[in-house]
Amino acid sequence: MAQLPILSLMTFIPLLGMFVILALPKGKPNMVRWASVIFTGIPLLLGIWLYFNFDRTTAAVQFVERVSWIKAFNIEYYMGIDGLSVPMVLLTVLLSFLCVFASWGIEKGVKGYYAMFLFLEAGMMGVFCALDFFLFFIFWEVMLLPMYFLIGIWGGKDKVYAAIKFFLYTLAGSVLMLLAMLAMYYYSEPHTFDLLALAQNHTQFLNKTVTLFGAQYALDKILWIGLFIGFAIKVPIWPFHTWLPWAHVEAPTAVSVILAGVLLKMGTYGLLRMNYPIFPEATLWASTAMMILGVINIIYGAFCAMAQKDLKKLVAYSSVSHMGYVIMGMASFTTAGVNGAVMQMFNHGTSTAMLFLLVGVAYDRVHHRWIIKPDGSKGFGGIASVVPVYTGMMAIALFASLGLPGLSGFISEALVFLGTFSNPKYQSYVVVGSLGILLGAAYLLWMFMRVFLGPLNEEHKDMTDMNWREKLTLLPLCVLVIVLGVYPMPVLNLMGPTLAKLLSALGVA
Amino acid sequence: MTNGMKWILLIAELLTVGSALIVAINPNILYSAVFLLFSFLGIAVMYLFAGADFLAGVQVVVYVGGVTILILFAIMLTQWLYRLKLKDIGSKFVVPGVVLALGLVPFLHRGLTQLGKMVQAAPPEKMAEFAASPKTAMIGKALLTNYVLPFEAVTILLLGALVGAVWLARPKA
Amino acid sequence: MPVNSALFAQSLTQWTQGTWFASVPIWVWALVSALIIIYMLALPFGGIATYVERKIAADLQDRIGPNRVGPLGIFQFAADAIKMISKEDYVPPGGDRFLFNIAPVLVVVGSCAGFVALPLGQYLVAGDINIGVFYIMAITTIIAPGILLGSWASENKWSLLGGLRSAAQIVSYEIPVALSIVPIILISGSLQIGEIVKQQGWHDHFWNVFHNPFTFISFFILFVGGLAETNRIPFDLPEAESELVSGFNTEFSGMRFGLYALGEFVDVFVMCALVTSLYLGGWQIPFLELDKFWVTLPSGLIALIHVSFFLGKTFLLVFVVMWLRWTLPRLRVDQLMGLCWKGMVPVALFNILGTAIWMWAFKGQSMLQVVSGLFSGGGGSH
Amino acid sequence: MNLLDFSNSIEGYLLVSSILLTLGIFSVLTRKNAIGILLGVELILNAAGINFVAFSKFHSAAIDGQMVTLFIILIAAAEAAVALAIILRFYRLKQTIDADEASLLRN
Amino acid sequence: MAQSCLWIVALPLTAFVIQALVGKRLPRQGDWVSVLAILGSFALATPIFLKLLATGAVHETLQFNWMVMPGVDAVSNSPILNKAVTLTVGVLVNNLTAIMLFMVTLCASLIHIFSTGYMHGESRYHLFFAYISLFSAGMLGLVISDNLLTLFMCWEVMGLCSYLLIGFYYQKLSANNASLKAFMTTRVGDVMFFLGICGLYYVFGTSNLSQIYEGIKTGVGSDVTLLGIPALAFIGFMLMMGTIGKSAQFPLQVWLPDAMEGPTPVSALIHAATMVAAGVFLLVRTYPVLEAAKVVLPVIATVGALTAFLAACIALVQVDIKKVLAYSTISQLGFMVLGMGVGSFAPGFMHVITHACFKACLFLASGSVIHSVHTQDMREMGGLRSKMPITFLTMFIATLAIAGVPGFSGFVSKDRILGDALAYGMTHPSQMWIPVLGFITAGLTAFYMFRLIFMTFFGHARDEHKHHHAHESPITMTFPLMVLAALSFAIVFAGPTGIHSVDANLLPIHWFDHALDHVKTEMGVQGLHASEEVEHHAHSLAMIVSLVVAGLGIFLSALTYLKKVISAAAFEKALKPVHTLLWNKYYFDDLYIKVVIQKLFLPLTVLMAKFDDKVVDHIFVDGWAKVAMVLKSVIAKFDDVVVDKLAVDGSGTVVSAGGWVLRQFQTGKVQQYLILTFIVFGMLLFYMTR
User: What's the first-to-final CA gap in chain E, in angstroms?
Assistant: First the structure.
């Protein structure tokens, strides 16, 4: 069974699905929907099989598929996963499957939508499985395109602005990444794109200088910064985050779920996959900067979320804040911190996905997302009495994302803080970061109170509660959130050995 | 080639050239048509001396009997009835004509003679024997062996020309 | 051994060998000999023909022809000739003098030049040209432009119309004539009239006219075509039309008119001679094979017999022509054209096809040979 | 008398044909009358015919040259017929056959 | 025994799950599920307690790995960053746990029974029981957990339940605000608490209590500094802040009075008996750390004293029956924290237990009062003695207990705390104001408690209508009252040895002290290290003073409210400024809500959002777009003018000109074409034949 190219299958079955869907007759949206369910279902099943067959003891890359692709530049089709990418792969597969159900309500251009969706899933899978930088970059760009269309066509009011902004922003980032990639290719001795090989002899980038526009710069630091900016835009890290609210607000529900659930993790995943192993010295050099940025992310995201009037924007900024924890965890270079960070990537994926799906549910019913309408009048109000099940789900999602113990959010936050605190350098940052937890609770509960509790806003008295489909999409996430909250080991033990190797490679002491 | 023959050939050549000159120069189209007839006859005689007896016959039948009459008919139909003056004031072209002739003829001649020198391949006696032999049978055989395709093509062409000419010339019904 | 002008000329040179004439180049002699044959034979016939025709016409119309000049008016033609010569040389005003003179010459040359190839006897032929028949046809076509130019030069609307019609008639009737000659060529396999006549001996397939039914029909087409080509009576439209006065030669008088009339009669004679040599066996004596005759006659006598037979047949045809002149009504122009294109050309083509099939079917044997073959059980085929 | 033996070899024929060609070209170029042009064309064609016949006798002593001339004559006849038909049609259209009139296809 | 502890927690948890999912559809909306669950826990807890009473000590631990993160395996507290980290969780059962378990399960079950009656007919009845069961599970989980991480987790789960329960009547906006305020303030405390835990990890490499106790004994971490201040001090302060948040000590006490928005059983369970006690329980659990950090305990003492005094003052002026009880709870908690601060480990802990009982009884009684008169404002009550005899009797007993009348449980624990405080004051003269404040508060407590009794039960009915309707609560509500009232008697705490365990000064504390001494030794706690005779002297003095003060309080209260001799109103007018100060709860609420939140926090968020939107988004991002636009127009102009006009159109005109020239050749005259051809022919010929 091992020799079955499971990763390629998981990546390319959605792609196959895309073509099949495009071939389906236009008139039958349901057929298209069920087809896409199948084509996301198969990768999910493969993912589950993968989960059970993943060897949790070694840190080595598994399920490797290595075929030389472009001999001239010895670029290989090098797919493989290790502890770091497995959770992400599982998250992608799960969220894509659920999002297909979530976008059942899409009526306009159903075929195009699902085709793009599957294309997106293929891109994402590729990003997480690719171990050859070139292949990684290709999937990185491939993943951009469908996102642009999904937001641009099926989005909200000024979707075009948001789509373009998203596209250009990420593209700008990937340009830097491209430059760094090529530089790495050029400077690496046997001229390779293979990430593991680059990591192997990362010393070759040390104490070399490169002249850019006249000035001399340390090679590895410049490359590190280049990659960092490319990934930072994706994470998003503080100065580069402004595309996120726009993209989220304008994207349709399922797309913003994927965007928040998976795409944000690509940034941090990239950092851990590329920056850390290949430029350890530069990473250490820049760790304080990253820590500062992480904390800013947390505080800044929380503050901005507090002031938002639009549900989705609030959740978007909450994502910014939560990704701040990930950055903090990563920058702490402690076992607990890094494990916490990767765990947070997974947990945030599930909890934000729930939040977005729930916001989507509300949006489908009343077609607006205003907590407080721009003209100051009440948007949602006291709908708990009208839609109890929805309120229950929302409560779970909220408490998960604000880090209530017993739910998955707390585990990763706790790990991040424990880890960061145990690094003497960053203890003061932890104190400031903990303010984030407080603020998180503040804006989320403020929103919960405004939207769900209090007297009922007459406009919404005819809101219908969640139907079976919506419940079905949210159930797995609820289960995940609760189970991982109580006993996180099923996911945590996946990443342990890999991160341990990563940290030891960093030469942290 | 007895001397007499040579003289006749010479006369024929002179006749052809002279009448051709008149055809080119003469302002009156009718005269040029008539002298064209005589030049055709001259050419027919030249053909005889070149051993193309059947060809001479064809030349006479087709050109003298057919084309010239057609031309005369055309001239009469177009000039006479409407009192058009026949004079074709070509005079102003005489000077360039002469220059052209003087310019072109020597070249042509030198070209052709050089060609001629290259050409002098056939042995004289074979030439004389060829000239004397009757050509009708040879042409007939050639027509139906190696020249079958042109023969068939020409038949179609002639049919086409025949119908076309009739249709074109016919006054509107 | 064909007697041709060259041979004739050589005999003249030998005859004048010793004299001062030797310095004259051979081709001069050839030319002179040709001229002698033509004018010895053509011109007198022309003149006689006018007389004979007027006599026959009178006889047909139950009147006495010219009998004033000489006994039975036989010198009438000489009188006409002298009258024409003495007439005033009149060129219609505005007419084209040069063309006016050229036209009659062309007509005469066109018609007399045909004599060269006609085989009067087995060895008596002016110049047995290899493409004999084709040559005659070619030369007779010169008459058409002659007539045309003549009618044009006479500045007379009627003569022009006449000229146009006669030219059109001559040109269009050439085709049925040519097509009806083709069966003969198919049979004889050669254009040389001498050859054709030689094959029409009794032992061969006798006269071509009886060779096969198709040649029998094409004989009549040839004869009628010949009439039309010489503008004789049934097709007399161009010259003697009631409204066209005398057609293209109205303006011509004197010697020019003489030439026209001469040309016309010589043309008739050539046509009839052609018909006899092609279809009626030329100088062949029916039922008799001279050179196999039990006694070898002197060549001169044989030649004489051949010539007499040939001329006999020709004059018979000429008589028929003249006979037709005073019996058949004149055809309208469109009837004329219709007969030619819709009548004679298709039939002629049919004959060619028929002869070809016959030749293929009976391997060149004439009807008679086939019949006799049947009896003699496959006698020697030709 | 080089003129005489001159006429036995090919030069005579070539000379005549070149002269004919020149005159043909001249008449085609200078004639205002459409029929004049036609005459010129006929002259040119005949010049070509003479050449072929001359070469068939003096060069290859084969029938081919004459065959070409035969075809030239046939085609020339067809061409003359059609040309004259066109001229007549043109005449009926424009009441004149001045070649310069026929310039409808100008720029 | 540890196994049974797990079950004690599991039972209410399963009850919660059942209620939450299918509660609505169960008969009686599933309240019996919760009650049975809590009774089950109680049943499991009693054998542990009995074992403690029988053997005097009980100790068992159960551990299993919760999170294992591989890394460089080094000594747990070595500075290596990427060392392997394994978080273990488990159960620690010692005397403290046993006592707390027994008390919590007892109170919880009684309150469950009470609320079946009280909440009868409410709309989201089944959810109420779900939340209560979850809360019980959380509290029990906290009590039994052997490490601070799970303790923290249960701590926060309780916070969640208090949020949900306070906001139970979510239609009321005030309830929502109250629940949010409660959650946020406790959350502040929790965050600090978590930082404390992080500190512990940093120092001890684990959060397991027993390991910490060993670590303290061996003096680990005494030299480590955290953020510049000695590690243990930092941890101590953080834990203290946790307690302040949870037990509503100053300055984070604002949420408890508002928490009264929730239904009364909730107040009873959460805001009297258990949750608030959790804060103190935390101090008890981590006492060795606090002691090791010399600096922290005095601070705790001061906080406790201050809270007690201030809360008591506010209670004087409150008119809402539940508010009075709330403030009394705060002040009693202040006493407990005071006790901890001064080192009276055992009495402090004992006060937790005794307070739980009588405060629960008080709250439930007020609940039944509210249930019958449907109002919480004491001014509308009065003269209910005849109407609700059982409620009056049980409430009166509990009031006696809380007032510190001897013979009742309150006196036993509070007096000993005051005694220790006095001893502490004697040994640390600078801290003398603490015991003085303590005694004053004791007096005030007695005063306002009896004020409450007189206003509600004595005198004439102020509101005839309500008075008329008042009726005794059903047995389901009165039975718990009776049990709790019984527990308020001091004798209960004499333990199995009965009367002869009463020590010299009539305090039946023998078995209790004995049990706690055992725990002290186990944890390495020194407690108050005042000399023997100072302690004896202080205690006797304290007993006298407390009796005097309590009697004075009761007497004055009777005068003003029963006999109306002193007019409360006059008093208010005289001390107007003080009254308004007290009425507005020292403006703490306003400070937090209006100033900190409305004025400071929200505008900051709005500013930040605006900054983010305007500066970062528009200038930084769209700015680039504008730059591009400018560039674009420049390039477009250049492209249009130079490239287009010159290059393209220029060549265009050249070509057309050439075209015009060539067109002249097309004259239409055939002959001219022929001339051209022949010229070329001539040239060709010339070339060929040169």
Answer: 128
